[in-house]
Amino acid sequence: MKPKKSASGLSRRSFLGRAGVGMSLVGASTIMSLGQPVGAINNGDIVETHGSDPTLKPVKRNFKAIDWSINAWFPGGIGARFAGIGHPELGVCNNSAPWMGLPYSKNRREELVKGWTPEFIIERFDMAGVEKGGLLACWAAEGLGGKDCRVEAEEVHAVVNKHPDRFYGIVGISSLPEKGNKYYGPTYIRHAIKQLGFKAVHMYPHWFGIRIDDKRMYPIYETCSELDVPFLFQIGTGTGMSNSRLAALPEWIDPIARDFPTLKIIGIHGGGSWEQNYINMLGKDPNVYWGLDANPPSTWASRGLLDLLKQDRGPGYREKHQNYQDKIFWGTDFPVQDWVVSLEQFDALGLPEEISRKVLRDNVIRLLKL
User: Average pLDDT, stretch 342-362?
Assistant: First the structure.
């Protein structure tokens, strides 16, 4: 008799053989194809791929991770909406090459347009030992200051409401809408936090042609401070997708950290050539944190992050500033990374369990009040 398959086409045998709490993480060698609703993928057949690094020697984890950074590209038109905004450099939509970091990817444009179901994400969570994840209601733009495009907060809330144990919401905003508009930053933030129960605010300031220290941003910071929710934004270099040169330099962030001492400021992605300057800010500013998501853990050692995470600068420093291991946390920026592959790489770093638990779980629980 053939083993029973899960809703996504994975057999019970292959599903139970995946990574779990207290188990060594194994390679994602038998996984399903993406881009279609769960249950309608290749007629339920399993697709053999070999995307994991066979040289990794993962350690055991006795706790579940929490991913703060998941782009909510669900079926039903979200991906098509972004693909249709027309900017030629919006490579995440126009590139048909396989997605690096996704062992099941074959055509990133096609997959993004079709989307990934919440049920697929939950299955990957269970394989990797992930408890829950933050869904980004991303707000993008057609180049610097161009036509904008967003995932509505209500779209994300519908998924969170259906799977409250596995997801929470993060609202994406723009600085461009003015007072009286339902998307005016402070108004939209209040709606998402107070009515929908979202946990944080996310923004790509450079996509809207505004510096992070522009005074037009201050009502947004005031609202986040008042509601005691973190503000997350891309740091370092800009991207081809936004047609911008810079995202947010550390020296632009410095006055915000001083003017809003209770605001939890979270720089996301890597900092590019400005990364060391941002690390210096982590060391001196108690309210500055770092959400590592776009760059996989396989890059962490070469960037000196392992030594950073292991540092203990004494009780006086810990009390006033926190150690780096208390200010850094992991994410995938899915679909940039897959959970099984990313956590295989993280576990291969061999960090002590106390530090791993902080980076993979405790820090985001504390900051987002999960």
Answer: 96
